[in-house]
Design brief:
Helix content: 55-70%
Mean pLDDT: 82
Strand content: 5-15%
Oligomer: single chain
Number of strands: 3
Order of helices and strands: HHHHEHEEHHHHHH
Number of domains: 2
Structural class: mainly alpha
Number of helices: 11
C-alpha cells in the first residue's frame, strides 16, 4: 500500500501537506528566532504524525519534485595539476559515501588544475563539506605534532616531511572511515513509509543527473607512519563532531 493510500490523501492533498511540512522545517532550521523555530518544529512534527509521514518521505518527495535539490559543487578550494594525494581523495570518497554523495575530479579552467567535485542531495553536500573541512584541519594538526615527536633517524629517512605526513594522514583516514560507519549505520537503513530505501532513491537521482561514478582501488603501503596514524585516530572526538553536523546544516533544501 502506498503512503497516499495509507493516509487517505489524494495526490494533490499529499503534495500540499508535503509543501507545508517543508516550509515548517525550513522555519525550524532558522535559529534567528528560537521561539518561532521551536513552534515550527512542533507543527511540522504534528503534521507528519497526523498523516503518518516520516522525514524520509519529505526528503524523497523533495528529490523527486525538484531536480535542483540534487546538485554539485566543489568539495574544497584545493586544486592539483595531476592527481590528489591519496589521503585526501580517500577521505573525500569515504565521507561522501557515508552521506550518500559522490565525488569526482573536475578540471577547473581558471585554476588550470583539478578540483574535487561533490554531487548529492543539497543538505547531504553541506554536511559532507562541513565534516571534510573539520577532519582535514584536524589531520594537519595531528600530523604536524606527530612529526615533531619523531626521532632523528626517522627524519633522516624522510628528508621530505610531507611524505611521512601523507602516510600518517592516510592511516588516520583508514580508521576514521570505520568510525563513521559505526556512527551513521542507521542512516543506511532509513526507508520511506512505503518501504523504499532513501539511500537507493538518492543514488538513483544522482546517477540520473550525473551518470555512474566509479572509483579506482588503490592499495596502501603499511608503513610506521601509516600505523601511527591509525592509532592516533582516537585523538579525534568524532562523536562530538557528529552531534555538531546534526545541528548545523538545514535538514532539507530550499
Amino acid at each position: 500500500m502506498s503512503l497516499e493510500d495509507d493516509v487517505k490523501l489524494s495526490n494533490a492533498d499529499f503534495d500540499r501537506v508535503m509543501i507545508k511540512i517543508k516550509k515548517l522545517l525550513n522555519l525550524a532550521a532558522d535559529k534567528s528566532n528560537e521561539h518561532e523555530s521551536a513552534t515550527a518544529a512542533r507543527q511540522a512534527a504534528s503534521l507528519m504524525m497526523k498523516h503518518n509521514i516520516a522525514m524520509a518521505d519529505v526528503i524523497a518527495q523533495d528529490i523527486k519534485s525538484h531536480d535542483d535539490n540534487i546538485s554539485d559543487e566543489p568539495l574544497h578550494e584545493w586544486s592539483y595539476r595531476n592527481k590528489f594525494p591519496l589521503w585526501i581523495s580517500t577521505l573525500a570518497i569515504d565521507i561522501s559515501d557515508v552521506f550518500q554523495c559522490k565525488i569526482k575530479m573536475k578540471w577547473n579552467k581558471d585554476k588550470r588544475a583539478y578540483q574535487l567535485q561533490i554531487m548529492g542531495y543539497v543538505s547531504d553536500i553541506q554536511i559532507t563539506k562541513y565534516l571534510f573541512m573539520f577532519l582535514t584541519t584536524e589531520f594537519e594538526k595531528l600530523a604536524e605534532a606527530a612529526w615533531q615527536e619523531q626521532p632523528r633517524w626517522v627524519k633522516f629517512e624522510y628528508p621530505q616531511a610531507n611524505k611521512w605526513k601523507r602516510e600518517y594522514k592516510l592511516g588516520l583516514t583508514t580508521r576514521i572511515r570505520a568510525k563513521l560507519d559505526e556512527l551513521y549505520a542507521e542512516s543506511k537503513e532509513v526507508v520511506t513509509s512505503d518501504g523504499s530505501s532513501l539511500v537507493v532513491i538518492k543514488e538513483h537521482a544522482i546517477t540520473a543527473k550525473y551518470g555512474v561514478v566509479n572509483y579506482n582501488t588503490v592499495k596502501s603501503n603499511v608503513t610506521d607512519a601509516y600505523v601511527k596514524g591509525i592509532r592516533d585516530s582516537d585523538k579525534i572526538n568524532l562523536k562530538k563532531v557528529v552531534e555538531d553536523t546534526q545541528e548545523s546544516p538545514e535538514l532539507i533544501g530550499e
